[in-house]
């Protein structure tokens, strides 16, 4: 395959993933889209590559994993900031539980949330180019919780294109 075909394939895949994450269904907002941003949980996100694990201390007490689509992984590997349009990040979280077999170890407990960030600098220009989705049991949480997303990112990680997670190679 010629390099130009590879580039076109990558752009096409990024567009398809982005459309899925944005909830594009014939131009309508998807049924399970996040309020404010219209972000949905992308198909196949659990097969994306790991960007980094995380441990959230009290009060949440969660184990987390941040995954990224191909556009995100390429940006992280290339240390590209700002992240390009089409970047999608998925944060999965579970309750942090002590292993019953080996006391010093932790295991995931009950799933708590899936959080999605989608980069579209035109659509989400007012929020640093990012759209946000927070889901519990596959359903978006209320609008009040989504209103806090950008404010927290803006206050703490504006200099890293509003993204907390660093790559764990």
What would your notes on this structure say?
The protein is an alpha+beta fold and 169 residues long. It has one domain: Chalcone isomerase (3-Layer(bba) Sandwich), CATH 3.50.70. It is built from three helices and eight strands, in the order H-E-E-E-E-H-E-E-E-E-H. Strand 3 and strand 4 form a beta hairpin. The two termini are 28 Å apart. It holds the Pfam family Cytochrome_P460. Keywords: Signal. This is Cytochrome P460 domain-containing protein. InterPro entries: Cytochrome_P460, Cytochrome_P460_sp.
**What level of helicity do the residues show?**
25-40%
Q: What structural category arises from helix and sheet content?
A: alpha+beta
CATH architecture tag: 3-Layer(bba) Sandwich
Task: Give the C-alpha Rg.
Answer: 17 Å
CATH class call: Alpha Beta
Q: Would you tell me the overall average pLDDT? A: 86
Count of helical regions: 3
Largest sheet: 6 strands, antiparallel
Which residues form runs of ≥5 with pLDDT under 50? 1-28
**CATH overall fold name:** Chalcone isomerase
Q: How far apart lie the N and C ends?
A: 28 Å
Shape: globular
Walk across the major sheet and give the strand order: 3-4-5-6-7-8
User: Could you name the CATH homologous superfamily?
Assistant: Cytochrome P460
The number of E-state strands comes to 8
The domain count comes to 1
The H/E string reads: HEEEEHEEEEH
Q: Give the percentage of residues in beta strands.
A: 25-35%
List the topology elements:
Blueprint: H1 3-22, E1 24-25, E2 28-29, E3 49-56, E4 62-68, H2 70-77, E5 88-98, E6 106-119, E7 130-136, E8 139-140, H3 143-157
Antiparallel strand pairs: 1-2, 3-4, 4-5, 5-6, 6-7, 7-8
């Amino acid at each position: 395959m010629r390099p130009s075909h590879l580039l076109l394939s990558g752009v096409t895949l990024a567009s398809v993933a982005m459309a899925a994450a944005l909830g594009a269904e014939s131009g309508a907002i998807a049924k399970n889209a996040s309020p404010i941003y219209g972000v949905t949980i992308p198909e196949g996100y659990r097969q994306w590559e790991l960007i980094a694990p995380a441990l959230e201390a009290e009060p949440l007490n969660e184990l987390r994993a941040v995954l990224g689509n191909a556009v995100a992984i390429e940006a992280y590997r290339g240390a590209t900031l700002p992240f390009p349009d089409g970047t999608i990040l998925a944060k999965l979280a579970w309750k942090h539980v002590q292993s019953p077999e080996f006391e010093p170890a932790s295991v995931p407990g009950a799933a708590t949330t899936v959080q999605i960030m989608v980069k579209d600098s035109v659509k989400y220009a007012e929020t640093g180019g990012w759209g946000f989705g927070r889901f519990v049991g596959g359903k978006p949480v209320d609008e009040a919780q989504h209103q806090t997303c950008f404010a927290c990112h803006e206050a703490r990680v504006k200099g890293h294109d509003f993204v907390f997670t660093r790559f764990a190679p």
